[in-house]
Design goal:
With 396 residues, the chain is mainly β. The chain contains three helices and 31 strands.
Length: 396
């Protein structure tokens, strides 16, 4: 993928460490090559993007994994890479994807399975059946993934978080411990001010019934603290800066199925306040939180950027390229500052999103400008986006 932009607005706002151009052309060993000049250093490059697609359970469409290769002169889009590499489907509703170390982790919700793949070949290394290992109630429906310090954390709708040692994924039992958290946990985040007080924070959605909470798990001693507030009703995603928590909360639906109180809230000690109104999706990198909103009954999506350091809220306007019809996932690459937005396609006959058609992802600069050739197809119901990285040697 080629782009001429360098330090873009979101990258500047985030204070992103960036030693080289956004995406650079590399040889097969991930080293960019320029003729007859010596190597003078290295930089981190974004190698590709992983998109997990939910599929459509009711229409019998399995989920899938899309990979977009950024190395080279143009995008290379590979669909259904897990099935092609392993001869089998991911099954129903894979819900999250994460690259960590030399592996890719996928939370297969309907399959009660964490799939562990080789990051280069997508070959299956291990299937971790959360029900078999944690129990039929505790391990049901793995939802979200987080990683820190050589451990992978998996939330389940059983109300638990399992801890997997990444160095021994092929040696059962695959998880070393699990923690009881709140009802229907979803997204997680790591935060703390020192190594001694690092903690895993878990968003307990309570299935949207209004009794949501945040669980704080000490990584030093395993103690669990529940954080509750009347404003936190249906938390979905988290970001933690020091000991300050940013929560994407979906609020509730009124009698007309209109969404109320959705947005991003900040929890700073005992003070809880809304900093981004009307948001149902968010991505966080550095100092910036980028959100979108397109609840039921809306005719147009809205986007915002919130600066954590300055407490400022600005509109983010994606422009150019194929328009985003119905946003359903968002991510910011912290290495480049580029914003990736996944969309469903609208059914022209009904005017509503089509949940059985493949979607697409658009790439924008931090200023919202569409990146040349930065639109590509995904599977059905793109749901989560992650990035893969490499270290490249620069030559001049």
């Amino acid at each position: 993928m080629k782009t001429k932009s360098s330090l873009m607005m979101v990258a500047l706002a985030m204070g992103v460490f960036m030693m080289c151009v956004t995406f650079i052309s590399c040889s097969t060993d991930d080293n960019p090559v320029y003729s007859d000049v010596p190597s003078v250093g290295e930089c981190v490059v974004t190698k590709g993007m992983l998109i997990i697609n939910n599929g459509n359970y009711y229409n019998g469409i399995d989920g899938s994994l899309t990979y977009v290769n950024f190395i080279g002169d143009s995008y290379t889009v590979q669909q259904d890479v897990y099935k092609k590499a392993n001869g089998e489907s991911l099954g129903g509703t894979p819900n999250d994807v994460m690259a960590y170390g030399e592996k890719i982790y996928i939370a297969g919700s309907d399959e009660n399975t964490v799939f562990v793949l080789n990051i280069r070949t997508f070959k299956l290394i291990e299937k971790i059946n959360t029900v078999q290992e944690m129990g039929s109630a505790e391990g049901v429906n793995p939802r979200a993934l987080e990683a820190y310090g050589g451990k992978v954390y998996v939330s389940t709708y059983g109300g638990y978080v399992a801890v997997i040692d990444t160095g021994s994924v092929s040696v059962p039992p695959h998880y070393e411990s699990c923690y009881k958290v709140g009802s229907a946990p979803e997204g997680m985040a790591i935060g703390g001010t020192t190594d001694a007080d690092m903690a895993l924070y878990v968003a307990n959605s309570d299935y949207g019934y209004g009794n949501g909470s945040i669980s704080k798990i000490s990584l030093a001693n395993g103690s669990i603290t529940e954080i509750k507030n009347d404003k936190i009703q249906n938390p979905q995603q988290l970001a933690v800066v020091g000991d300050v928590i940013y929560v994407l909360d979906w609020g509730y639906y009124d009698e007309n199925w209109m969404q109320q109180d959705a947005g991003v809230y900040v929890i700073n000690g005992s003070i809880v306040s809304k900093v981004v109104p009307d948001a149902i999706g968010m991505a966080v990198a550095g100092q910036s939180i980028v959100t979108y909103n397109f609840p039921y009954g809306s005719t147009k999506a809205t986007y915002n950027v919130y600066n954590i350091v300055y407490g400022s809220l600005d509109t983010f306007t994606p422009t150019g390229g194929t328009p985003i019809e119905y946003p359903c996932a968002i991510a910011v690459d912290p290495n480049t500052g580029q914003v990736c937005i996944a969309s469903r396609k609208m059914d022209p006959d009904t005017g509503y999103p089509n949940y059985s058609m493949p979607g697409y992802v658009n790439v924008y600069t931090g200023k919202g400008q569409f990146v040349d050739s930065g639109s590509f197809p995904t599977g059905v119901e793109p749901h989560a986006i992650a990035f893969t990285y490499g270290v490249a040697k620069l030559q001049y």
